[in-house]
């Protein structure tokens, strides 16, 4: 064969099937059009607009100035950060969670990859609750397992989980059940009773429970945090909790998260971290340490920014007859609403973009149950949100 005339995709055909089939739906087409239009308010991304506060940035700078530019030998994380995570989680969830049960990772995404690499492989399946952040589905596919979705029911204008359907989706090849609570994008929160039922089912069947708790502190109930698997799971239960500094501590670009796991798998988690990333940067971990030890006021600010943004959005959007608003989210940073007269959410997002210069994320990204919904990030400056909502109301009236 004349290699000079080989097709440009020839090498791809020799990659793993999971790589060949990898397809991540994104907002690229919308973003291109937004650049053409100009003056677009981008509310499609899952991040707030607050710059990481000085006390976190200063801690990272101080670490750099002190020469913290070498490898961090402990693959579970720099000991001061690991110890702070242990103290934070133990106090927050009301039970001791020792340091070696958590592994620091370069972002919540990497923590999820560690979780799925630990439990899933070819020939197995992972059951997950949707609407769901699409990276969950794609990571399951990436490690070679079958992603198996179970949809929340949209009943009485609210999202609800049918536990019987969730359990019926599991079989002898199921390695894990995955959920996000509070949910991205719906703001649905799994109750502690539902969580206990899922944990009990996993105990009976030998199925891992993977709880994405990245929005755990951005919830609007009376307690400091949403219900957590860590508050009910025993130390050697097949339970994994994924967390990140991105959302509640305004650190999306820092790429620092952690995975909490049974103590018995700690040596394997350290070895996996060594092979996959060789750990997280020292100055980043220094900043994360400042955030988790001194950042309760910051978390409160972020939570209130989300809550007030969602309240403002519901007040304004409720006046637009074309919009269907579910019950208010119980946590998170999004409003997830529908335009019933435009059931194709990608077309609806393009229409909103063209008419109002506001960028939203199509619900089809998050699974079939939400194909008519649109996601709008509300963790933003109130003046910017007000302008965006005024534009949308005028365009959709």
Low-confidence stretches: none
β-sheet strand percentage: 15-25%
Coarse shape: globular
How many β-strand runs? 14
CATH topology of the largest domain: Aspartate Aminotransferase, domain 2
Q: Would you summarize the structure shown here?
A:
The protein is α/β, with parallel strands linked by helices. It contains 13 helices and 14 strands.
Describe what this molecule looks like in 3D.
This protein folds into two domains: 20-49 and 297-396, Alpha-Beta Complex (Aspartate Aminotransferase, domain 1), CATH 3.90.1150; 55-294, Aspartate Aminotransferase, domain 2, CATH 3.40.640.10. Helix content is 39%, strand content 15%. The chain contains 13 helices and 14 strands. It has helices spanning 17-20, 28-37, 54-65, 79-93, 108-119, 134-142, 163-168, 192-205, 266-276, 282-294, 296-317, 345-356, 382-396; strands spanning 41-42, 102-105, 125-130, 146-151, 153-155, 158-160, 174-180, 208-212, 239-244, 257-260, 334-338, 358-359, 361-362, 373-377. It has a seven-stranded mixed sheet, sandwiched between helices. The chain is globular. The N and C termini lie far apart (62 Å). The model has no long low-confidence stretch (mean pLDDT 95).
Sequence-ordered SSE layout with sheet pairings:
Layout: H1 17-20, H2 28-37, E1 41-42, H3 54-65, H4 79-93, E2 102-105, H5 108-119, E3 125-130, H6 134-142, E4 146-151, E5 153-155, E6 158-160, H7 163-168, E7 174-180, H8 192-205, E8 208-212, E9 239-244, E10 257-260, H9 266-276, H10 282-294, H11 296-317, E11 334-338, H12 345-356, E12 358-359, E13 361-362, E14 373-377, H13 382-396
Parallel strand pairs: 1-12, 3-4, 3-7, 7-8, 8-9
Antiparallel strand pairs: 2-10, 5-6, 9-10, 11-14, 13-14
């Amino acid at each position: 064969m004349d290699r000079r005339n080989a097709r440009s995709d020839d090498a791809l055909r020799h990659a793993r099937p999971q790589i060949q089939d990898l397809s991540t739906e994104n907002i690229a087409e919308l973003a291109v059009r937004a650049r053409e239009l100009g003056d677009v308010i981008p509310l499609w991304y899952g991040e707030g607009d607050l710059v990481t506060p000085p006390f976190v940035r200063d801690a990272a700078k101080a670490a750099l100035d002190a020469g913290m530019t070498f490898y961090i030998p402990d693959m579970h994380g720099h000991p001061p950060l690991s110890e702070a995570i242990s103290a934070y989680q133990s106090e927050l969830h009301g039970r001791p969670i020792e340091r070696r049960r958590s592994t620091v990772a370069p972002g919540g995404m990497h923590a999820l990859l560690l979780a799925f690499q630990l439990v899933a492989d070819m020939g197995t399946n992972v059951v997950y609750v949707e609407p769901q952040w699409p990276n969950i589905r794609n990571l399951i596919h990436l490690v070679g397992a079958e992603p198996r979705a179970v949809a929340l029911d949209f009943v009485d204008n609210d999202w609800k989980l049918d536990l019987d359907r969730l359990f019926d989706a599991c079989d002898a090849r199921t390695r894990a059940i995955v959920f996000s609570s509070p949910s991205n994008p719906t703001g649905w929160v799994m109750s502690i009773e539902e969580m206990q039922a899922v944990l009990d089912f996993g105990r009976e069947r030998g199925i891992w429970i993977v709880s994405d708790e990245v929005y755990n502190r951005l919830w609007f109930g009376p307690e400091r945090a949403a219900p957590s698997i860590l508050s009910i799971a025993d130390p050697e239960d097949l339970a994994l909790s994924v967390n990140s500094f991105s959302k509640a501590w305004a650190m999306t670009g820092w790429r620092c998260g952690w995975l909490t796991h049974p103590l018995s798998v700690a040596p394997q988690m350290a070895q996996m971290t060594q092979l996959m990333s060789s750990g997280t940067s020292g100055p980043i971990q220094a900043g994360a340490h400042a955030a988790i030890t001194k950042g309760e006021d910051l978390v409160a600010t972020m939570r209130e920014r989300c809550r007030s943004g969602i309240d403002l959005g519901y007040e304004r959007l409720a006046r637009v007859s074309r919009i269907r608003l579910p019950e208010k989210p119980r946590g998170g940073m999004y409003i997830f609403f529908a335009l019933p007269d435009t059931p194709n959410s990608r077309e609806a997002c393009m229409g909103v973009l063209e008419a109002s210069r506001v960028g939203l994320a199509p619900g089809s990204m998050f699974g079939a149950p939400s194909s008519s919904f649109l996601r709008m990030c509300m963790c933003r400056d109130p003046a910017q949100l007000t302008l965006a909502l005024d534009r949308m109301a005028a365009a959709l009236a």
